TrEMBL record:
Full protein name: SMC-Scp complex subunit ScpB
Keyword presence, Zinc: no
Keywords, ordered alphabetically: Cell cycle, Cell division, Chromosome partition, Cytoplasm
GO biological process per UniProt: cell division; chromosome separation
Keyword Cytoplasm listed: yes
Classification via NCBIfam families: SMC-Scp complex subunit ScpB
Pfam families: SMC_ScpB
Amino acid sequence: MDDLTRAVEAALFASDAPLSIDDIAAYVGEGDVEQALAALAERYVGHGVELVERGGRWHFQTAPDLAHILRRTREDARRLSRAATETLAIIAYHEPVSRAEIEAIRGVQISKGTLDVLMEAGWVKTAGRREAPGRPLLYATTPDFLTHFGLASRRDLPGIDDLKAAGLLDPLDEAVFQLQLENESDEG
């Protein structure tokens, strides 16, 4: 293993958060960081930890088939309410989205606390303002959202067929979801 690859490996292991290629380059200096990452990812295939890229940021994670071993030592105390879960899903599928749009999709008002919980978790951020009367704030998911849920990008979110197969849509939810998809395709 060359010195650059070793330095990239050390930077990733020492970091407490996933790193972008630019972040890694700031630590290790000049060189082909992407090639070093590819070499490391290949080297760790089949090991207890693997190198993964999520939302343009790289980090080591426990191999999925071994995650159950560590589950008892790492408990997520973060339990989202139904309102927070629905809000997070709407933001993930429709981002960037305003509070009024979230409320229109959910059919009920959301409390400010719901968005605060998602922002404190690091899964949602403000993403500017819509060029419309009142200039409402827009919300979007963060790279931490992708990392937490094991997604490389938002394109990896489950589609309607995946949700049906998992039994997560009842007939009414399915009809509403289908209407939303049709409305989006008519607008786009």
